[in-house]
Amino acid sequence: MRLLIITQKVDREDSVLGFFHYWISHLAEHFDTIKIIALSVGASDLPDNVELFSLGKEKNAPKLLQAFRFYWYLFRILPKVDGVFAHMAPEYVRALYPLNVFFRRPVIMWYAHLKVSPTARWAIKHADFVLSPSKDSFEFDSPKVIATGHGIDTEQFSPGLSAPTSSSIMTISRISKEKRIEVAIRAMKILVKDRKRTDVRLHIFGTPLRRDDMEYEKILRALVVANHLREFITWEGPVANKDAPTVYRSHQIFIRMQGGGGFGKTELEAMSTGIPAITPTPVYKNDLGKFADDLFFPEDDARGLAYCITRVLSWGSARRAEYSKLSREIVKNKHDVRHVASEIARLLEKARR
Questions:
Q1: What architecture is the 168-334 domain classified under in CATH?
Q2: Sequence-separated (6 or more) residues with CB below 8 Å from residue 321
Q3: Predicted confidence (pLDDT) per residue in 164-188, tens digit
């Protein structure tokens, strides 16, 4: 089969969308050829049966030129492929519709935003299938929606040879108000000032993208200073997805503060590397068994987060090794990228019939 992928960005160095590079590599194992139309293209190292077409955003191409290129590439490519996979791009599903009325190629869309925009609703209606990490990933009920897991490369995100000995905590996300990073700062204040845990260190990975994100980061930095925590909290900036496994392995604990929906990609990456992931999301409490009480806290509860951190830091090597084996099994069984790639191929074949 021959596949057209439409996506925002292909760049293995990107801190947000770099993971899609290894998705493409695994998809290439299921298709004879893959053509990719991307809004922006950066560093890549893809199989020989993959061809990239950039709309030119990385070179600041005018939007009118980007639109012209999009339809020019579609007109050339669409007749020669067996189906389309649109990754997090409902607007492109809508944009390709006029041409696809004639070519009638099946369309599969990946979507994982909790809130469903009007454009996304339109795209879901007109796509053959909609893939999402879980049924909880967005507020839309349709028989077209297929839960596939998050698509983690469990070979890349594998445990290190030994656990770090320092009391190091990490979080990685966009610096944004919805990520609730202030909860982590308040938890650090409880640990350092109230419980005298001067050995703990929090490393915040990520960067603001929008203007309101930048304002939020200023508030967070001021909060760190006001609580005299500069010695204990560091801002690490963005990290490319290809470098993320090393970052996870160098920390004892991963924390997520944002609640709602199912598990996110970053905590699953942490779990795949065997790092305890503390979250306000109870979706895997049953899977985690006896570890669940140490890893779950109520949303916005800094004291609960501090309690979980204290509990996990007290784990011995045997308990940590047992958790590592279990957490990796959860990710491999429910969220492996190989399953996502095979599902895309299977569903495309089904839609062609």
A1: 3-Layer(aba) Sandwich (3.40)
A2: none
A3: 778 999 999 999 999 999 999 999 9
